[in-house]
Amino acid sequence: MRSGGAGGMMGTVEWRYRQAIERPKADHRCDRLAAEELSLLLCELADGRSDLGPNTVARLLHRFQEALRRHIHAESLLMEALLAAKAEAREIFQ
User: Fold this and answer.
1) Residue 63's pLDDT band (cuts 50, 70, 90)
2) What's the pLDDT score for residue 9?
C-alpha cells in the first residue's frame, strides 16, 4: 500500500484507479498482438507455409481463447463492481 506525504491517501486512491484502468488496457494490447500473430500463423497454414503440427496449432488456439476468456471475465467483474458502486452511490476506490 502506498503512503506518505500530504497526498498519501489520495495518492493511494489515484494509484488504484490508474491500476484498474491500465491493467485491462495492457491486456487489450497483448490480446491484439496475440491475435495478429495467430492470424499470420493461420494464413501461413492455409497457404501451406507452416510446418506446425495440428496439436501445436490447437494448443495455441486454446491458450489464446483461454486468455481472452480470463480477460473478459475480469473486466465483467470490474464493470459489475463499478455499476454496483454507482447504483449504491458509494465511492469506487476507498
Assistant:
1) very high
2) 59
